[in-house]
Write a structure and sequence with these properties.
The structure is a single chain. It is built from 3 helices and 4 strands; from the N terminus they run βαββααβ. It is an alpha+beta fold. Strands 2-3-1-4 form a 4-stranded antiparallel β-sheet. Strand 2 and strand 3 form a beta hairpin. The two termini are 13 Å apart. 17% of the residues are buried. The model has no long low-confidence stretch (mean pLDDT 95).
């Protein structure tokens, strides 16, 4: 079972919401290429609020993800497209149900 995760809240500037949406949709390919990312979900909560939830087997995988392409793209977007820096929090996964 995966034990570690990250939960990110992303608030886009209204004029960039569609670009943030597209960026997250495109990021799934990079997530698929990350060897240590077990699951990766991007979601939209409102017109300008987005999120990402991903899981890892160990701390090295989580750390590697934070140093990877998706995190770098998100931090770059923060300078222009986001209303504030992404709120990225480590979480412990307690239980999982997958197909």
């Amino acid at each position: 079972m995966t034990k570690l995760g990250l939960l990110a809240r992303i608030e886009a500037k209204p004029e960039y919401a569609d670009k943030v949406d597209a960026m997250l949709r495109d990021a799934v390919q990079a997530a698929r290429e990350e060897e240590h990312t077990v699951t990766w979900f991007a979601f939209r909560q409102s017109a300008t609020t987005f999120g990402v939830f991903d899981t890892f087997q160990d701390e090295d995988g989580r750390k590697g993800h934070l140093e990877g392409r998706i995190a770098a793209a998100l931090m770059e977007a923060a300078q222009t497209m986001l209303a504030e820096a992404p709120d990225i929090r480590p979480v412990d996964v307690l239980a999982v149900k997958l197909p």
